[in-house]
Amino acid sequence: MPDEFNRTPRIAYFTMEVALRNDIPTYAGGLGVLAGDTLRSAADLQLPMVTVSLISRAGYFRQEIVDGRQVERAQFWDPAQSLRSLNAKVAVNIECRQVWVGAWMYVLPGIDGGRQPVVLLDTDLAENSAPDREITHYLYGGDDHYRLQQEIVLGIGGIKMLQALDFQVLRYHMNEGHSALLGLHLLQRFAYDSADLRPGEPPYDIPRVRALCDFTTHTPVEAGHDRFPYDLVQAELGDYIERPALRHLAGDDSLNMTLLALNLSERVNGVAKRHAEVSSRLFHGSKVNAITNGVHACTWTSEPFRKLYDEYVPGWGHEPELLGRVDCCAPDAAIWSAHTRAKQDLLALVKARTGVALNPELPVIGFARRMTAYKRPALLFADLDRLRAIADRYPLQILLAGKAHPRDRQGKQLIENLHAYMRALQGRIATAFLADYDMDLALAMVSGVDVWLNTPLRPMEASGTSGMKASFNGVPHLSVLDGWWLEGCIEGVTGWAIGNHVDNGGDAPALYQKLEDKVLPLFYENRPGWLAVMKGAISKNAAFFNSHRMMRRYASEVYIR
Ligand SMILES: *Cc1c(COP(=O)(O)O)cnc(C)c1O
């Protein structure tokens, strides 16, 4: 371990998934990409952090589409190709036996020489039994029992590993509740001598643990919060923590990881203003601070726009606020030509992967999400006759992508339904579904389409980030008012809203009406007006919804206070 990273006390950032690079498949979707953007900005801003995550040797999964259905394949990768194996081992107790945990180091480079250490935990060691060697293989794979073992390795193994590697930890930041067991280790570290206790008093210095931890919650969806039955917890962890204290902190009926994280954290953060309000209600009035998400500027800007920004707003990578000047400084012709190039690149990729030749002159509506019920991927297809009628007046094309979690049957059904709609539209509206949505495909799509569509069920979209990525590429967002869009939408200036603030039921007709009355006529009949919206997306939204702003806020309001 080079002591390059040991001299400065660091914020230890714990996350189940992290999108470091496209060829390191230790992420599933939005949460991991956000974690990656967090680190990319921390690297650029030279914030002293160290990240802890799992090695996920089998990745999440690689998606293939066969006869309109999702097929999942494990995505085994070789950590030795891009990471350095660390000479450190710690043991955690699972089911009364020792499970050994090793680690790999990835150093994420930033601009101006910033370097962020990332420690990825690995139980695939010769010392362990065959089943234990697989604990860190499958991201979000397996059952409750497997998940709890992963979370023991992440939280307890992670904190021990940082100690073994001689990191000095200033604070612990839990990115989502998966890592909350780290708090149990801290409770043990700060246990009172039982002789000094009054009866009924918890034998741990809880305030001291709280003073060291922060938590960011990412979803108001119940399934997003892990809960483990206490008999399972007992079997896996034994009496790691005294039972009444654990129930007091993590819930009476089952171990609720979100509640545990909440009760052991000084600062609790939501990922957008509305999400912080919703979370505060979900957590019975706890104070939830709102730090709205952002995306990493350089990572999510296509090459043609990077060149354009370098020319007209140099320094934008370090100060994305400068993008606020693009509407006045960059000529329309340069913006249109950058977009045209990004669109050509995307259409070439669509042709190569699917055989579908989209027309570069016609608008492309893009939609790519985790395929799950609350994201409503089928909303655009709710009334096929209406959609065909709109396309007869204003021809349009549709591009889709997204993975469904292997156990999300509804999500997988949605992928099948989308393929049925695509067949039904054949000959009238050109459509394509791109398999295996990942970081590279996300950048190609958010930069190469003309409109980025988002249709979540309110208030389920905690933040959403792909619409922010689109804004860096001058692609206007057309979305339900939820998550970040409640803050980012200025109607007709940065994009358009679907429906109103509250009513989920009227969204399909509202979407068709907005397309037919506003979006498509502007595209076809008023190119300067269209360019004004492209520039509005860049100047008003990319300038604000970036992870540099987000991390400057975390630094000043959460980490250093
Ligand atoms: C950005 C991104 C997401 C998250 O997008 P949302 O808008 O939050 O749905 C998911 N997957 C990949 C690969 C991404 O790049």
Average predicted confidence as pLDDT:
96
Query: Taking strands numbered 1, 2, ... along the chain, how are they ordered across the largest sheet?
Result: 5-6-7-2-1-8-9-12-13
CATH topology of the largest domain: Rossmann fold
Fraction of helical residues: 25-40%
How far apart are the first and last residues' alpha carbons, in Å? 30 Å
- The domain count comes to 2
Proportion of beta-strand residues: 15-25%
- How many helices? The count is 20
What is the architecture of the largest domain at the second tier of CATH?
Answer: 3-Layer(aba) Sandwich
Strand-pairing-aware structural class: alpha/beta
Rg (CA only) = 24 Å
Main beta sheet, described? 9 strands, mixed
CATH class category of the largest domain: Alpha Beta
Shape: globular
Bound molecules: pyridoxal-5'-phosphate
**How many β strands by DSSP?**
19
Give the SSE layout:
Elements: E1 10-15, H1 30-45, E2 49-54, E3 62-66, E4 69-73, E5 84-94, E6 97-109, E7 115-122, H2 130-133, H3 144-164, E8 169-175, H4 182-189, H5 206-210, E9 213-216, E10 227-229, H6 230-237, H7 243-250, E11 254-256, H8 257-263, E12 267-270, H9 273-282, E13 289-290, H10 303-312, H11 326-329, H12 332-354, E14 364-368, H13 384-393, E15 397-401, H14 409-425, E16 430-434, H15 439-448, E17 451-454, H16 466-472, E18 477-480, H17 485-488, E19 495-498, H18 507-525, H19 527-542, H20 547-559
Parallel strand pairs: 1-2, 1-8, 2-7, 8-9, 9-12, 12-13, 14-15, 14-17, 15-16, 17-18, 18-19
Antiparallel strand pairs: 3-4, 5-6, 6-7, 10-11
Helix pairs in contact: 1-20, 3-4, 3-6, 10-12, 12-15, 15-16, 16-19
The structure holds pyridoxal-5'-phosphate (PLP).
